[in-house]
Amino acid sequence: MKKLYLVTGATGHVGTVLVSALRARHADIRALVLPQERRFAPEGVEVCEGDVTDAGSLTRFFNVSDYEETTLIHCAALITIASGENARVWNVNVNGTDHVMQKAAEAGIQRVIHVSSVHAIPERPLNETITEVNSFSPGLVQGQYAKSKAAASQRVLEYARKGLNVSIVHPSGVIGPGDLRRRNHMIRTIQAMASGKIPFAMKGGYDFVDSRDVVSGILGCEKGGERGECYILSGHYVSVLEMQNAVRGIVGKRSVRLEAPYGLMKRIAPAAERIAGFFGQKQPILTPYSVQTLHTNGNFSYEKASKAFGYAPRPVHETLLASL
Questions:
Q1: What is the pLDDT of residues 62-90, one digit of tens each?
Q2: Is the pTM of this model over 0.90?
Q3: Could you give the residue range(s) of every CATH 3.40.50.720 domain in the chain?
Q4: Nearest to residue 254, comparing CAs of 193, 202, 315?
Q5: How far is 91 from 78, CA to CA, in rounded Å?
Q6: What is the distance between the alpha carbons of residues 248 and 142, in angstroms, rounded to a whole number?
Q7: Which has the closest alpha carbon to 31: 49, 13, 51, 57?
Q8: Could you tell me the CA-to-CA distances from 194 to 52, 172, 187, 250 in Å, in that order?
Q9: Which CATH number fits domain 3-176+207-237+298-314: 1.10.600.10, 3.30.70.3400, 3.40.50.300, 3.40.50.720?
Q10: Among 93, 71, 90, 89, which Cα is nearest to 80's?
């Protein structure tokens, strides 16, 4: 049977690792790439230029008449930790997802995986475990990225109810290999930790997952996930201090003991973001949102994904090693 994988966001962090995994399976792959990013397109795939915010540009990407079976994996998204509103975040993450799902339904795509985020799921009190939900609302989450992913996830569920065979996966904080374009602020933070540029740790932490485990979860969900169901693809909760000392241990540097309190970092973050912008840094590491996130509930359960398709994240040390 002639099968095609359609991949949006193929030049992004998860998309890069996903395409590599599919190539290892000798799969036929068609990658959707923005015209201005064609030079970053992965090798060994059929490249199709288009923009998810322009439904008309997706026609060729969804021309699957030569294939008996197709799977769409929708990775395209704009991730931001910046303050302020960016209209393109909503346009890409929400309207773009709507366009992609509509085209998939019209083309009769047999299987669809939408890559969302744990940020789309409402936070629970710190002593509670966060599990999957069956509806989403931007009003229940904080930050423009989280709100956009919540709205997009709800639209995807509506397509599932109309019959599209789509499942949603929710990765936690993605680190690990594949960030070839250095857009992942946490990987840049890890590398700064390794270089010794950050002499202290911030109080707080979060759940971080390996990009390779996210891809394993996506492909597992393709086979074992159910239509209209959501699956958390989390990894392990790590405090900033634990992460920093693990990274410093890998590169042979002494551990740090000093932790900057949340209140101090919360006061510093707005100025740090403005200074970074003044010096032309379009993707600063320290922002009010990044500081706040490290003090939210990061206790996510991947039990549902584990039971459905054997999802199991690797030890965090392996992920940190691969992030350097």
A1: 999 999 999 999 999 999 999 888 999 99
A2: yes
A3: 3-176+207-237+298-314
A4: 193
A5: 9
A6: 32
A7: 49
A8: 36, 22, 11, 8
A9: 3.40.50.720
A10: 89
